[in-house]
Amino acid sequence: MPFYRPFKANKEADGSEKPSTFALAMATEKKTKYVKQEYEATYTGNKPILVVMTDEALMEMENKKKFSTGNHPVEALVPMLHFKDAGFTFDFATLTGGDCKLEMWAFPKKDENVKAIYEELKAQMDDPKKLADIPNLDEYSAIFVPGGHGCMINLPHSKELGRLLHYAHDNAIPTVTLCHGPGTLLSTKEYSEFAYNGYEMMCFTDKTDKMTPSIGYLPGAMPWQCQASLEKEGVTIMNKTEKGDVHVYKELITGDSPYASHNLGVKAAPIVVKWANENRA
């Protein structure tokens, strides 16, 4: 009988590694905290929210092991539930136009609301737009970049995402992201200067990322650090750990982790409604 090792990362069929049994039990949930909100105002126009997701599913760690990743399904789908409740529809885009990748090992299998919106949007997520084919954000009510380690693979280096984020920044278009998603804001350096110097935001902390290999969540140390990279560009990270907190600074709405998914949606939806009804009616 093989020795049971709950802290050892689990192998996928392609040889990549997903979180250990212990890490999955500690860091994922079968049902989210989503509760439908009754918003005083909802969006009355027809301009969707642009959801920028990753088409990369394998992150090479510092030790060269491959982490099976993508966007975190809770971080993507729970805020979208709130946006949908507030009257919005969605367009999806990835860097290459390849299908959106999700960390399906983190999917909340007992959450009927999340399962329903996933099934509703899956066809769109399987056939997203290519970032380079989107000229500007004039046809969108907001831009939303979910987290998950996968968003740190190619999006932070994308000139095309940087171009769109600069457009959002210059036009005060609501920009929503959480967990490792704020790392994608570094893409603005690929297009021009970093757009968020002096901003306050939240993200998944480097301290926690450095701890997670010890419980088998990550199969090795991160190839680069999200928090430190943002701080180097003049960003103030407002959280010291992950408690589900959300922060609003100018047009930027950020959350600290998957635990912030519900809170982020609750906070962001009415902000986006107000802006969109005034500017995208």
Please outline the helices and strands.
Elements: E1 10-11, E2 17-18, H1 21-27, E3 49-52, E4 58-60, E5 66-68, H2 73-85, E6 90-94, H3 112-126, E7 129-130, E8 142-145, H4 159-170, E9 175-178, H5 188-191, E10 200-201, H6 206-211, H7 226-232, E11 236-237, E12 246-249, E13 252-255, H8 261-279
Parallel strand pairs: 3-6, 3-8, 6-7, 8-9, 9-13, 10-11
Antiparallel strand pairs: 1-2, 4-5, 12-13
Keywords summarizing the entry:
seven-stranded mixed β-sheet, 13 strands, single chain, two-stranded antiparallel ribbon, 30% helix, Rossmann fold, 281 residues
Strand content: 5-15%
Count of beta strands: 13
Report Rg: 18 Å
**What's the level 1 CATH class?**
Alpha Beta
Based on Cα principal axes, name the global outline.
Answer: globular
- CATH architectural name: 3-Layer(aba) Sandwich
Q: How many strands, what sense, and barrel or not for the largest sheet?
A: 7 strands, mixed
From N to C, what is the helix and strand string? Answer: EEHEEEHEHEEHEHEHHEEEH
Structural class: alpha/beta
- Under CATH, the homologous superfamily reads Class I glutamine amidotransferase (GATase) domain
- Average the pLDDT over all residues and give the rounded result: 96
